[in-house]
């Protein structure tokens, strides 16, 4: 009878140990899945708040000096077109202003987001250019003949077309298309991620009756997510994007670098949040565990 | 103690293990997407910083060793070839000097390597290798499919007729155009001036470049003066080599 009881006890203890080990392994797996889902959710938030956000893009246009750079490019291109015609470069001075460039770039972007076409008001520029040319011709006492008048008209038309092309933000149509497709992904993705996170937390809580053990696995998940999110931005930003990205024109290149830097910084910010959260959870876990040990010691006397 | 250490380390190695496994998991799961985006990004990524406004450089040095040629008694300092005694530059016409190509610094795109001058028409302009818009704003641009002075082939140079080649309006047959480089002083004598349409100039380009003699060809838009409008004609000035060292290559 005693031997049977001992065998029964060891059988029960063995089963218990296997059950505990199984719970541990399952908890580790669920914690790992939690970290993956956290990474996915962070990615969706980054895309939503920095990559596919019109307000963020407008901020980046300002911070990357895009309007000023485009103005300089328009001036440079106009000079290149003017020189072979025999006209002095002064005829182009004062025709375009940075404020007008800013208004047209913003209007073009807003129209594109709404799916509309935008054509800048070129008549004003053409009148200014014609006025400057008129002053020059009068000063040189040149009376243009029919062919020269036609050439001047063609020159003004070419300068206007250059301006209309310059105010268009490159790749904007593709970006807008991506936003439209992303909106559905974002909506469904966030719902799915949050649901999975809640489910995983509930399962972890059920598997670990001791609350501090539950917190330990949540800590693993959040800390791993924070580290996974931090590595890519840290490596990329430390290397520097200006040494890597090469797109034309130069104004758009500065914008692209600032855009990607902003996205990576958002990702880094979210990773820091996760790391801070994981330390808070770790602290809670340690406090609860030490309180439990105190209670156990007190109960033992 | 050992168990305590293992428990403490678990707070470190568990998240790190998750990171390792997590990256592997994400990579293998999203591999097709990652490869597609990677291929797209490769089109816009480069290993070095792009210079969108490269500054024009200069290698032209008016004090370079070519001046030693004017006072030489015996051997050339330039290596192969024979140098005849020449006491002043006027005798350079009869002198035959050869320079090894390794003695020459071949200019890169956008580099000022020579000066072009003609006293009679008040021409004195810098010559750059290449003929981009930026170069034509800074001086005379040389077509990179042509040759440097001394190579016994055609030398094709262009500039705007409103700026650097404005003096060509006064050029005549018999004018001497000097081209000063770091490795030699060259003189060319104008033997032909012609005005042709831009289309005809495009057609004649191959013929000009395939010449087997050293000829300096300057071209610019035509007409001159304060003409406003598209200039559909080109002025070509052809000049034969009169003096200057030959480059051995």
Give the helix/strand layout.
The complex is a heterodimer of chains A (301) and B (249).
Chain A lengths: L1 H50 L2 H10 L2 H17 L15 H16 L9 H17 L6 H21 L5 H36 L3 H29 L10 H51 L1
Helix pairs in contact in A: 1-7, 1-8, 1-9, 2-9, 3-4, 3-6, 3-9, 5-6, 7-8, 8-9
Chain B lengths: L1 H28 L1 H12 L14 E2 L39 E3 L10 E8 L4 E7 L3 H6 L1 E3 L11 E5 L17 E6 L3 E13 H12 L5 E8 L10 E11 L2 E3 L1
Parallel strand pairs in B: 1-3, 2-11, 4-5, 6-9
Antiparallel strand pairs in B: 3-4, 3-7, 5-6, 7-8, 8-10, 9-10
Short account of what is shown:
Chain A is mainly alpha-helical.
Question: How much is the average pLDDT of chain B?
Answer: 81
Structural class by sheet pairing and helices of chain A: mainly alpha
List low-confidence stretches of chain A.
Answer: none
The coarse silhouette of chain B is elongated
Shape of chain A: rod-shaped
DSSP strand (E) fraction of chain A?
under 5%
Domain tally of chain B: 2
What's the number of extended β-strand segments of chain A?
0
**Greatest contact pair?**
A-B, 45 and 34 residues
- Helical content of chain A stands at over 70%
Quick tags:
heterodimer, A: 301 residues, mainly alpha, B: 249 residues, alpha/beta, Sortase, Chain: A, eight-stranded mixed β-barrel, 11 strands, 23% helix, 28% strand
Describe the structure.
- The complex is a heterodimer of chains A (301) and B (249).
- With 301 residues, chain A is mostly helical.
- Chain A is built from 9 helices and no strands.
- In chain A, α1 runs antiparallel to α7 and α1 packs parallel to α8.
- The longest helix of chain A is centred in the C-terminal third of the chain and has 51 residues.
- Chain A is rod-shaped, with a radius of gyration of 33 Å.
- With 249 residues, chain B is of the alpha/beta class.
- Chain B folds into 2 domains: 50 residues; 192 residues, Sortase, Chain: A, CATH 2.40.260.10.
- Helices cover 23% and strands 28% of the residues of chain B.
- Chain B contains 4 helices and 11 strands, in the order ααββββαββββαβββ.
- Chain B is elongated, with a radius of gyration of 29 Å.
- Chain B starts with a helix and ends with a strand.
- About 12% of the residues of chain B have low confidence.
- Chains A and B meet through α1, α6, α8 and α9 of A and α1 and α3 of B.
């Amino acid at each position: 009878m005693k031997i049977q009881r001992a065998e029964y006890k060891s059988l029960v203890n063995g089963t218990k140990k296997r059950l505990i080990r199984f719970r541990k392994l399952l908890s580790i797996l669920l914690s790992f899945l939690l970290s993956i889902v956290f990474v996915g959710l962070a990615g969706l938030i980054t895309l939503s708040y920095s990559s596919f956000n019109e307000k963020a893009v407008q901020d980046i246009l300002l911070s990357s000096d895009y309007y000023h750079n485009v103005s300089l490019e328009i001036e440079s291109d106009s000079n290149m077109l003017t020189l072979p015609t025999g006209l002095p470069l002064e005829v182009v001075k004062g025709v375009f202003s940075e404020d007008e460039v800013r208004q047209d770039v913003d209007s073009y972007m807003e129209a594109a987001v709404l799916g509309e076409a935008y054509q800048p008001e070129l008549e004003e520029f053409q009148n200014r250019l014609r006025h400057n040319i008129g002053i020059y011709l009068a000063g040189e006492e040149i009376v243009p003949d029919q062919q020269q008048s036609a050439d001047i008209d063609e020159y003004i038309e070419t300068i206007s077309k250059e301006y209309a092309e310059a105010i268009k933000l490159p790749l904007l149509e593709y970006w807008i298309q991506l936003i439209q497709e992303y909106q559905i992904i974002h909506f469904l993705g966030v719902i799915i991620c949050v649901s999975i996170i809640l489910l995983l937390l509930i399962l972890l809580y059920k598997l670990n009756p001791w609350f501090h053990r539950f917190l330990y696995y949540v800590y693993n998940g959040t800390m791993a997510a924070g580290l996974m999110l931090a590595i890519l931005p840290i490596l990329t930003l430390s290397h520097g994007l200006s040494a890597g990205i090469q797109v034309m024109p130069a104004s758009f290149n500065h914008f692209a670098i600032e855009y990607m830097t902003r996205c990576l910084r958002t990702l880094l910010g979210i990773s820091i949040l996760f790391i801070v959260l994981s330390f808070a959870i770790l602290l809670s876990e340690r406090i609860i565990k030490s309180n439990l040990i105190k209670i156990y010691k007190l109960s033992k006397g | 103690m050992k168990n305590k250490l293992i428990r403490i380390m678990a707070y470190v190695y568990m998240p790190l293990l998750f990171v390792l496994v997590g990256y592997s998991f994400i990579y293998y799961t999203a591999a097709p997407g990652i490869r597609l985006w990677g291929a797209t990004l490769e089109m816009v990524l480069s290993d070095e910083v792009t210079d969108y406004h490269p500054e024009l450089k200069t290698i032209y040095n008016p004090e370079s060793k070519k001046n030693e040629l004017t006072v030489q008694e015996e051997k050339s300092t330039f290596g192969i070839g024979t140098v005849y005694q020449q006491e002043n530059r006027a005798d350079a016409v009869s002198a035959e000097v050869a320079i090894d190509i390794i003695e020459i610094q071949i200019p890169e795109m956008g580099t000022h390597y020579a000066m072009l001058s003609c006293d009679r028409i008040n021409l004195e302009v810098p010559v750059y290798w290449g003929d981009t818009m930026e170069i034509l704003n800074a001086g005379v641009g040389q077509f990179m499919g042509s040759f440097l002075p001394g190579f016994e082939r055609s030398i094709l140079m262009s500039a705007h007729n409103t700026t650097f080649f404005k003096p060509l309006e006064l050029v005549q047959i018999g004018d001497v155009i000097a081209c000063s480089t770091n490795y030699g002083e060259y003189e060319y004598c104008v033997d032909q001036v012609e005005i042709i349409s831009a289309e005809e100039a495009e057609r004649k380009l191959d013929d000009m470049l395939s010449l087997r003699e050293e000829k300096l060809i300057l071209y610019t838009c035509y007409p001159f003066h304060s003409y406003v409008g598209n200039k559909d004609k080109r002025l070509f000035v052809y000049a034969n080599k009169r003096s200057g060292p030959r480059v051995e290559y």
